[in-house]
Amino acid sequence: MPAFLAAGEPGAAAAAIQADAARYAGFHFLGGVRGRAWYARRGARAATPLGPGLHGIDNAGLDVDDPRLERARRGFAAAAPDSDALLALLADDGDPGRGAGDDRPIFIRAPEFGTRCSTILRIAGDGALELVERRFCAAGEPHGETRLAWHAPAAAAGSG
Question: What residue ranges in the chain does DSSP mark as E strands?
């Protein structure tokens, strides 16, 4: 999304990406600058500004009311702030038990419709950023991983 990177006002750029979403296959987009971030996806009505805190994205969108996403969110809130521990939570393919709503595991192993990517983006209050993405083949086995870390004081909450 080069338009986002070139834009003078990222909120407007995220809105333009959202308005043009029909041109793309399904996607989830996160973009931000100076303590402000936006989320856009194919099928949404508008780009959404993100506030501080824990957010979750699944196929249905951002912070949706879904038992699987809620189980992951509870695990993240209780986990040590370690990317490997968080990835392990996202890889949980055990029987989640029965209850109201979706009773599938967090990690779905299925060749036709399964988990293909788990991504963690953490932005600390001091501007330290970490992105970890683990990719999976159709059999659900790891197929690659990317880890990036950088420091951007302008990304810190309340700056700029």
Answer: 28-33, 36-41, 48-50, 57-58, 61-62, 117-123, 128-136, 142-151
Q: What is the structure's pLDDT at 12?
A: 79
Note the pLDDT tens digit of each residue in 25-84.
888 888 877 677 888 888 888 888 988 888 888 878 899 888 878 888 888 887 767 888
Task: Give first-to-last CA distance, the chain, whole Å.
Answer: 23
- Decide if 138 contacts 114 (C-beta within 8 A): yes
Give tens-digit pLDDT for 23-34. 888 888 888 776
Q: How far apart are CA 146 and CA 135, in angstroms?
A: 9
Distance CA(50)–CA(37), nearest Å, equals: 5
Task: Note the pTM of the prediction, 2 decimals.
Answer: 0.76
Question: How many Cα atoms within 13 Å fall on the side-chain side of residue 42?
Answer: 8
Q: Which of these, 25, 19, 28, 18, lies nearest to 57 by C-alpha position?
A: 28
The residues near 145 (Cβ < 8 Å, ≥ 6 apart) are 132, 133, 134, 135
